[in-house]
Structures are given as C-alpha cells and as structure tokens.
Amino acid sequence: MPFSLTRLTVARSMPPPFPQEVKAFIKQHGLTLCIPQRELGKGAFGHVEMVIITLPDGTTVKAARKTLHACETKGAVAALRRILNQELAGLAAAAGCEHAVQCLGYRLPTDDDERAELLLSCAEGGSVENLLVGAGL
User: Helix, strand, coil: what percent of the chain each, to 5?
Assistant: First the structure.
C-alpha cells in the first residue's frame, strides 16, 4: 500500500464542521478555486499543499490538497483510481469523526495525463512521524 499522508495526520486542532451549504460549495468548486499557499509534504506518488478557498461571502477556508501524479505507464488511470479509492475508503470510515481529517472533495482522472486530487480538511498538529520523533520513539 502506498504511503499516505491522509492516514498519518494527527488532528490536535480541527476546525468546526462546515454548514451544509458551505460543504456543498466546497465539494463542487473547491478544487478549481483553491489557491496554493505552501507545500505540506511530498512523496513518490504526489504531494500535499495547504490551500485557501474563497467562499461566495468572501470568507476563506484553509484546506489541504493532495495530488497524486499521473504515471507514464499503460494503465496509469486505473492505478490512480485504485489508489484514490483506497484513500476515499479510509476517509469514509472516519467521516464525521471530529478528530479525523475529512474529505471535502476529490477528482478522479479520466485520461492518462491527468492527476487525481483530494481536498481535505486541514488539521493543525503535524504528522504522526513528527509526533513520534518528538516523543523519542
């Protein structure tokens, strides 16, 4: 199974849940409207960035965009879809949990040169790796 920043996020400080109309807007427009702020991490399969999404009322929301890069091999779309579906299954298992990262939206690739993207709630707190290193484990 590929390394996953989604499963390795420690959510010490999660924002309050969004109202339904905000969730719907972010799900429909979040990936196209998000503006990258800084890189949070990267690996062999992609990278994660902190992004800002401006809502219709002008307020902004912080989120994390995880991008899984397309491969140049035959069957890349199927492989990306499989990886993304594994991520989505893990996120669905934690849906509604106040201490877990939530899926705000996603984009499945339809062509071999496209990437897969996940839009995730932003958890301030760092990674499990940093938590363990800090604890001397």
Answer: 30, 30, 40
* Identity of residue 34: C
Distance CA 82, CA 76 (A): 10
Nearest to 101 by CA among 123, 84, 116, 118: 123
- The string of pLDDT tens digits covering residues 121-134 is 987 666 656 666 77
What is the residue whose two structure tokens read 């990437």?
115
Q: DSSP character for 12? A: S
Name the pTM for this structure. 0.76
Q: Residue 11 and residue 55: Cα distance in Å, rounded?
A: 24
Chain-centroid distance, C-alpha 97? 16
- The token pair at 93 is 């298992």
